[in-house]
Write a structure and sequence with these properties.
Layout (H helix, E strand, L loop, with lengths): L3 E4 L12 H14 L12 H16 L3 E7 L5 E9 L8 E9 L8 H14 L6 E7 L4 H7 L3 E13 L2 E11 L4
Parallel strand pairs: 4-5
Antiparallel strand pairs: 1-2, 2-3, 3-4, 5-7, 6-7
Helix pairs in contact: 1-2
């Protein structure tokens, strides 16, 4: 099985009986509540996440961010990532990859690797982009996953992420140079 990926899908098209916005919020809440390092600490609800999604949607409306969505065989939102362009004039040759998520019920099916490959392909399709940069929370194993997808650790800020009092994690910076596929 594999996911079907869409870059910048229409928000007007409902899938599995729910608008895309609701599918994104549900995915983000489910990933967060399963312990995923996507900007929240459980427990969270879709309503807790809504303001953060609105920020991404505003950036999309301004043309600064692209949304990559992976749909499962049932048409449900199963995976996402946001590709955000740099606005700094000296850094426009690479972009940020944010909020990389695969629904917990799909873990272990290879969908994470499919998502990362689709994100790299989408970035290659954006004029002038030569690399993808992301950060991940230390202590989760995410850095090993990204390394397996071709990313290299290029920096680390010790204790930069405070998950809870007394639980500080490293902010790991990773880079994937894009060569033609």
């Amino acid at each position: 099985m594999s996911l079907t990926f869409r870059l910048d899908p229409s928000f007007d098209v409902a899938r599995e009986g729910r608008p895309l916005r609701d599918g994104l919020l549900a995915l983000w809440a489910d990933v967060s509540n399963a312990g995923g390092a996507v900007g929240f600490v459980p427990p969270v609800s879709p309503e807790d996440i809504r303001p953060e999604l609105v920020k991404h949607l505003a950036a999309m409306a301004e043309g600064r961010t692209h949304l990559l969505v992976g749909y499962d065989d049932e048409g449900a939102v199963a995976a996402t990532a946001f590709l955000t362009l740099n606005t700094h004039r000296l850094m426009r040759h690479w972009l940020w990859l944010y909020t990389v998520m695969v629904h917990p019920k799909h873990q272990g099916k290879g969908y994470g690797r499919q998502l990362m490959a689709a994100a790299a392909e989408a970035a290659r399709g954006i004029d002038g982009i030569e690399a993808i940069r992301l950060t991940c929370r230390g202590g989760t194993g995410a850095d090993r996953f990204y390394e397996a997808c071709g990313y290299k650790e290029v920096g680390r800020v010790p204790g930069a992420i405070r998950v809870a009092p007394g639980d500080d994690r490293d902010d790991v910076v990773m880079l994937l140079p894009l060569q033609a596929a």
